[in-house]
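Supplementary Methods S3. Complex input for the adenosine monophosphate-bound model.
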Amino acid sequence: MALIVIDCCFLYPLVLHCVVQVINLTALHWNCRFERPDFPLKFSGASPLTGAVPYAQCYGGHQFGTWAGQLGDGRAITLGEILNSKSERWELQLKGAGKTPYSRFADGLAVLRSSIREFLCSEAMHFLGIPTTRALCLVNTGKLVTRDMFYDGNPKEEPGAIVCRVAQSFLRFGSFQIHASKGEEDLGIVSTLADYAIRHHFPHIENISKSETLSFSTGDNGQSVVDLTSNKYAAWIVEIAERTASLVARWQGVGFTHGVLNTDNMSILGLTIDYGPFGFLDAFDPSYTPNTTDLPGRRYCFANQPDICSWNITQFASTLMAAHLISDKEASYAVERYGTKFMDEYQAIITQKLGLQKYNKQLVNKLLNNLAVDKVDYTNFFRSLSNIKADPGIPEGELLVPLKAVLLDIGKERKEAWASWVQSYIQELVASGISDEERKASMDLVNPKYVLRNYLCQSAIDAAEIGDFGEVRRLLKVMERPYDEQPGMEKYTRLPPAWAYRPGVCMLSCSS
Ligand code: AMP
Ligand code: MG
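Predicted complex, serialized as structure tokens:
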């Protein structure tokens, strides 16, 4: 991936990074090295793209469990779509380029700190192998934006920025909900939009062969049958449910907490979308939420994500039901498939993380309990686990040696609890029959060494706010190879320092 800096005295832009290999911007006849002086003008929205018809999308959403009505792209403007040489369709969207018809009372802008967070995290997620929207470039606007970061009556001026993000589609559950919420008259829009989405983004569903057997028993007693070849919308929502389940399973695997899982932040393609107050787990805490607005109920905490996304799928299914596209039986079936897919994928991921062949519920539950009691760092723990040898003869006093660096400050009783767990784990390793070397190699492919911890992001932001983007670049480079050992970069695996626990670092409010 190229790392590109453009300096232009007009907007003081800084193009940090581009994904040119992925979306092949040469399709637009731009100079690939971005030496064109109008690049920042195009990617700040200051100058239109020839042939493009920019728009902002109207959508609604359930926010914190309550229908919030119309929201829409208040600060996102789609520039247009491009087709690359592989005939893939990519949508380019500016976030923070100014007001749209859906900005309501707000300014349509974004601050540098939240833009760097979205930029870095969407790239970090991509390199972790997790479906996500991506970031093409970040432009400093050179203008100040006023934000009351903690909504406590202390507004401050901050540098503004614009991220150009890229995805095959930015359609959300809420893009459909808004039309169904308006009653019978607008229900046709739901089906037109669903037809569009299926045709462009799920073409295999349009082409499902009627001879294929895709009928499934469903319901508590397994008496009802849902046939996915007879209704493309049913097949569609089942696929969305499964993609979402698979996404959430991967989040849980790396300890990612989205922070604002409202239905307007749920992609129909199963992508991680809208990076706001997200956080990777440091110390394992199932009730961790990175969102200050979420603190009272912790609706969006780490452990709730699977259930919340099931709730979101249920809302989306109700929308399709209201538009008479699917039956209640098909809606429940989609939710059921979400649950099954999530459990299958989550168990498979945890099993891989442990380097085992078979899911062992008791072993996993005991481990998660131990991690929570001792507030062990989630990422570093799993990375260290591959150092344990499948040797039942290890003396009791030496069982915890490979985990010494991650089991910090634990007393005698807790040491015993951990030693007992390690003993059971070693038994499972022995039973699996895989060599230590082979297991370590496979575990290191699923247990990242480097994740974008909030304090790392904040250090990069602090420097960037005074004009030094060096740390943003270094962090980006490290996060591009999260599963590799990167000699000299070990400081990026450190636990958060004391200053990171101040509000605004490990916890943030919604939009900024
Ligand atoms: P979010 O919490 O970022 O998902 O945003 C919720 C809603 O508020 C979405 O409709 C956003 O487009 C909108 N929004 C967030 N920030 C701004 C802003 N600065 N100006 C206008 N609309 C915004
Ligand atoms: Mg949003």
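The pocket of adenosine monophosphate (ligand 1) is lined by residues 71-76, 103, 106-109, 260, 265, 274, 276, 510-511 (CB under 6 Å). Residues 1-33 have pLDDT under 50 and may be disordered.
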